[in-house]
Amino acid sequence: MNNYKIKVNGATTKEAQILLEKLGYTTGTGFGLNHAVWLFAESNGTVNYSSTEDFISDIDYQELTLPQLRDLVVLHRNDVNDANFKLFISPSQGCLSLYKASDDVFYAYAEKSKCWDKSRSVGIKNKDLEPIQASKEDEQGLISGAYALRALADGKEVELRDKENNWVRANNHHLVGLFLGNAFDFRLKPRTITLNVGIPAPFEPKVGDVVWCLSELSEKGYEARTAYDAEDFIPHIAYWRTEEEIKQVVVALRGGIKG
After folding, report:
1. How far is residue 146's CA from residue 28's CA, in Å, rounded to a whole number?
2. Strand partners, 167
3. 68 and 93 part of one domain
4. 40 lies in a domain?
């Protein structure tokens, strides 16, 4: 295993933790998700964190962005279903399955060895490249196996995705090893709620803006955040301009959820 460091915030820490666990690292049960500024994946398989911007370490860490970490998971998983591009070769050979990483480098799926190999011949300027439209369920909401075990212990309903891509109920009768490997995806069972609320419209922030967003880690239900680069803004999270606006959102949601 390698030594990595990933800068995170309240919105990205959980995803980074799950991705690292998919690479085989272990975070443990007392992991401080609400305090982390940096995550450190160690060569011994453990993950630690720093709650400050500055840190001192004798270890030489390779810094990764969240998109780069996602790429590592895909390349580690070696699943042809992760292909996001295809390239027609010939009628007899069909199409070559490709994965374009966040740095625009292409990897070709080798059918014989069942793994991704860095392509020397395919580049972003290839005219015959065809993007593959994502058909898999949006993976927002996935949890790690360790988190799934803790959720079961807390009495929550957990589901796992079986080999037929169906979500089925997970319970304490399943072997612990099932939760510790990378063979299955897990999620908390979705709940249907009824909302009857009116809230201020969110906006699309720019780098450097101070914004307000919902946060399950805050007693108030929201937090302020500043983005130092475009990757700090998460596409599926809504942002508001002022604290007064986010207060209205929290009040409306807490009053409008009927269960």
Report:
1. 8
2. 161
3. no
4. yes
